[in-house]
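Reviewers of the previous submission asked for a worked example of the structure-prediction workflow described in the proposal, so we include one complete record here. The input consisted solely of the amino acid sequence. No template or homolog information was supplied to the procedure at any stage.
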Amino acid sequence: MEENIFQQQSEVIQTSLNNTPNSIWKSKLLLISGGVLLIVLVGFGGFFLGKILSQPKTSPSSISQLSPTPAPPTQIPTPTPTTDPTANWKTYTDENTHIQFKYPPNWYAQKNINSTFTVFLEDKPFQIIKGEFMTSIIIGLNELENTASGQKLYAEKTLEEGVERFKGLFDPKTVQITELTIAGKKAAKLSGLLGPGMLEGEYFVSTLIQLKDKLLVVTLTKKSYEDVYNQILSTFKFLD
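From that input alone, the workflow returned the following structure tokens.
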């Protein structure tokens, strides 16, 4: 093919010799331009061929190195099991009223035999004396006794009535009333400083729990035992 190109070029040169001097210069310029174009094309072809051959081959191992590394699985923290602070407490059950609750293992509980249901709780041994008697925590029914007949009555039948009466024990500026649900039963807690009387200014808490036609009253007389008091409330069960 190169021979044909050179033959054609020779013919062009031969023809140009027979032409006018102006045609001779045109033929020379055409020949020079064709030679320069051929050199440029060959040069560019070699340049791009060299670039292709110089590209590094990508091996399977290098492909794997370029792949993103999978993130490690997320570790879900194991929840810490909660412990029941009352798990080793003593259990008090009254068979007549079907009331059950727990109290600390180092505490003492005594029932007042002169009432339908009243239990005194204290952190040291004690003796129940006649007349008004108080311990750190007292649990009992809102019971009144007719001294003439000995008949026992309930001071209130509803929670609303009980709240109104117990509010009168407190200094109205300090009393706080909180509605609760204890063991599925409607309840209300009254807390604050006591009003005028022998214990005026003393911190006092009474929680009233609605039972059938009567109230269960859980009383705290020492603020330092308020945590124990609340834990006792959390253990109440009614077995009826």
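The first strand starts at residue 90 and ends at 94. We consider this example representative of the routine output the project will generate in years two and three.
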